[in-house]
Amino acid sequence: MRRRRVWICRLRIGWGGGSLGRSSTRGDSCSRGRLWQAVRVLDIVHESLVKDVSVTKRDIFYRDVPLFKAQSTVDKLVDDFAATFGTSRGNLNVRATSKGLVCGTGITIITSDGRRITLGDTEGVLIPAMEDIADIQIDDEVGWVLVVEKDAVFQTLARLGITRHAAFARRGVVITGKGYPDIATRQLVKALSDNLPKTIPILGLMDGDPFGLDILSVYKFGSKSLRHFNEELVARRIKWLGVGRGDCAMANVDLGEMIPMKTRDYQKAQSMLQRRMPDKWRQELMSMVFTRRKTEIEVLLNIQEENPFSSFVGWLAGMVNAAMDRVASEGPMDVS
Predict the structure, then answer these.
(1) Signal peptide: which range, if any (predicted)?
(2) Is 62 a catalytic residue?
């Protein structure tokens, strides 16, 4: 079976993105605390470079929990150092703890030490850090990539074996970042987006709520916390597949069956509406704000009818097959 090679791009970061040089307006005690935190992170990074042993952000945090107090402190310092030094986090021998999963026998990952990670169709494999990946190979039979927001939905889809389900015209690959994605997951989606033929759609299956669209935005446009090298992580080709109001209407889910939005949902929607985004996303967010209702993937996932193509798998297969047909007949998809 012939396989397609996906080359891995390495991160390169320009100068001037960090915030380590900024003066603090807080009290001296707070400033001293931040200084000691920064010095401690530099000490651990220096040790890892001298010994040529990689550490994770989690490892650094547990080296001195009383000093750092929160994992986010370490995360921000490491990212700021990388941006200030004009290098990647991997070049500092620091890597994020991977949490994302991928499944589908159509993809094989070759590690830097020569191991071949062959994936299955019914369970996920932890996505390795990109520093550990030498090559990614994709079978020519693969026709679509689906990025799923939630781990629970990913596990359900894996158990159903949708990556080679008969309802789909071609085999596929399913990925999840388990909510907001880690760097390894974003790098994998980025590599696929940049290197797979444009005839293979990359689709996002997210909750129909402000946070679902925000997670999709991280994949497609980047995140504020990693703005120093967003261009090295964004997957411009990813397209929102669902779930939206129209999907619920097709499944005969009325407004009363949708979930009331909480204050944090409403605030998130209002904040997102201040950004530039595809018109389809904006219309969906405005509808959420107006109706004060949101929906989740599980609303469609729980549909069980006698006609198998009226079930969730039938709906998903129809949407994915239609996306493949569009790119085959019209060229690259509208990237909204």
Answers:
(1) none
(2) yes
